Amino acid sequence: MTILEDSMTSTSMKIGFIGGGNMAYALISGLTKNLGSDGLTLHVVGHHPEALARLAAGFGALTHTAIEPALGACDVVVMAVKPQQMRDAALELAGVLSAAKAAPLVLSVAAGIRMRDLAHWLGGHAAIVRCMPNTPALIGAGIAGMVASAGVTPVQRAIADLVMQAVGSTLWLDDEAQLDAVTAISGSGPAYVFYFIEALQQAASELGLSQQQGTQLALATFTGAAQLAAQSAEPVALLRERVTSKGGTTFAALKVLQEHGVGAAIVQAAKAAAVRSAQLGDEFGA
Questions:
Q1: Which of 10, 76, 136, 180 is deepest in the core (most CB within 10 A)?
Q2: Residues 157, 105: Cα–Cα separation, whole Å
Q3: Is 15 helix (H, G, I), strand (E, B) or coil?
Q4: Can you state the angle between helices 211-231 and 236-243, rounded to 10 degrees?
Q5: How confident is the model over 127-162, as pLDDT tens digits?
Q6: What phi, psi does 106 have (nearest 5°)?
């Protein structure tokens, strides 16, 4: 029996969500599938009646329009609000945490907001995990970079892992500053992929293929290449070289990409995203 299983044998897991948007929906859907409704009590605080109604009808969530004392009895409270909303939400939650018998783990999925600022708004709350998921979480294929504050116990760390693994895989970091890089690579990364797919679709159209044909080819190519890279023990660079015969079609294509500095532009784009992630922490921090 794992440390998490041992801690949860007598009671169901209680999870609160502040924010009922897409990420909260994805996490709740994944948790319900993994744990079952009998082993899960869900509280969701939100301001959009339709979203709350969908969560109540689909997963039996107990919904609220304001932060309630019930969140203080949860094992974990997921802060699933936008960075600019985090301060107000945390200040409201602080009163609930101060009155709780056993303060829950607080898990933040907001970009840029640093743990020290969140702890300050929460009245010095010690148990915080900050994570950066990405949108493939919506289909259970996400990845989340995660870092824990010094006050997080082994059981709470396992709970955080369980929550985020409901929608994909997790990568734990020792340095919170690395989350800016995670945001740049995997948090914003799906948009880079979609951008490249759009370009391939345009190229397919200009080469005489229909929109449907171009979309089918682009999506299947990206999916297949990504799966090949994930399942291969060989470096991605070697996989690329094996497709690239000197003087062949791929060689001609990559030559154009290199001449236009596409690789360097992607690196610079990711660095810009990392800088912006750090700026969000400065803008919306304490």
A1: 180
A2: 9
A3: strand
A4: 130
A5: 999 999 999 999 999 999 999 999 999 999 999 999
A6: -110, 125
Q: Tens digits of per-residue pLDDT, 203-252?
A: 999 999 999 999 999 999 999 999 999 999 999 999 999 999 999 999 99
Q: pLDDT tens digits, residue range 11-28?
A: 589 999 999 999 999 999
Structure tokens at 114: 């640093």
Question: Can you read off the two tokens belonging to residue 261?
Answer: 């500095």
Do the beta carbons of residue 28 and residue 165 sit within 8 Å? Answer: no
Q: Count of residues for the chain?
A: 286
Rounded CA separation 36/94 (Å)? 30
> Which residues have a Cβ under 8 Å from the Cβ of 155 and sit 6 or more positions away?
3, 4, 7
Do β-strands 128-132 and 142-148 pair in parallel, antiparallel, or remain unpaired? antiparallel
